[in-house]
């Protein structure tokens, strides 16, 4: 048979559990971030006509954790390799760019970067691309770096120039402590709406809101008083 003290601790436990569950319910899940996909284009010619073609996609899995990954759309064709080699021989540039916005009249804007074509050749298409974001998740810039310290005039076979071995880095630029009135005003508006919503939604009575805390306490008191009476009754006989 359950003694009053055992039951008491049971109900206190229940009460704590209740409080814990309801306290946890409102924590927002701000860990979630949708993933984003950027298109990476490249050009082997540093001449006048920009001949950019799609190189692949960069998928950002998480800005906060800097998780990103490059997927090549195709391997380099023999004519791509020729262009890259001739650019390397003339100390030309290899360029990449990421379209970030298309205006209403169809003109795209880009962030771009360039590195020496000879570095791309001599690294065997091993490079590192860094994409820089601002705090609102907009792309601010891109930079590319080949994984070689300097060009040494190596003779690299074509087989080393077909598959990209690309590492993607993601950085976030934290804005300095400048007054951000726009965000502040938006936050004030949001807070106000939130307050209104709460007033509308939460017009239940005191009992309606807090019954889950009150009921265990009432039960506890009933049990304690009945245990008291039993003890007194026992003593009287
Ligand atoms: C070509 O690739 C092979 C295998 O990755 C590597 O061992 C070799 O050093 C590369 N050649 C050049 C010239 O980079």
Automatic annotation (TrEMBL):
Keywords, in A-Z order: Endoplasmic reticulum, Membrane, Signal, Transmembrane, Transmembrane helix
Record-annotated membrane-spanning stretches: 210-227
The keyword Endoplasmic reticulum is assigned to this record: yes
Main subcellular localisation: endoplasmic reticulum
Topology versus the membrane: Single-pass type I membrane protein
Highest rank taxon of the organism: Eukaryota
Cell location: Endoplasmic reticulum membrane
Record has Cytoplasm as a keyword: no
Cleaved signal peptide residues: 1-23
Family: Belongs to the EMC10 family.
Protein name, as recorded: ER membrane protein complex subunit 10
């Amino acid at each position: 048979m359950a003694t009053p003290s055992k039951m008491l601790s049971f109900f206190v436990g229940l009460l704590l559990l209740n409080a814990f569950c309801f306290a946890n319910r409102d924590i927002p899940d701000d860990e979630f971030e949708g993933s984003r996909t950027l298109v990476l284009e490249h050009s082997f010619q540093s001449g006048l006509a920009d001949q950019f073609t799609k190189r692949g996609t960069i998928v950002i899995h998480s800005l906060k954790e800097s998780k990103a990954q490059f997927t090549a759309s195709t391997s380099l064709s023999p004519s791509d390799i020729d262009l890259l080699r001739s650019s390397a021989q003339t100390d030309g540039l290899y360029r990449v760019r990421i379209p970030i916005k298309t205006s209403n009249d169809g003109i795209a804007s880009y962030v771009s970067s360039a590195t020496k074509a000879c570095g791309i050749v001599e690294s065997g298409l091993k490079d590192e691309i860094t994409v820089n974001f601002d705090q609102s998740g907009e792309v601010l810039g891109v930079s590319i770096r080949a994984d070689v310290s300097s060009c040494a005039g190596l003779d690299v076979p074509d087989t080393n120039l077909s598959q990209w071995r690309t590492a993607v880095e993601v950085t976030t630029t934290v804005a300095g402590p400048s007054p951000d009135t726009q965000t502040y005003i938006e936050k004030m508006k949001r807070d106000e709406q939130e307050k209104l919503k709460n007033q509308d939604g939460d017009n239940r009575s005191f009992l309606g809101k807090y019954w889950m805390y009150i009921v265990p306490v009432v039960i506890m008191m009933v049990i304690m008083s009945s245990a008291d009476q039993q003890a007194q009754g026992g003593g009287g006989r």
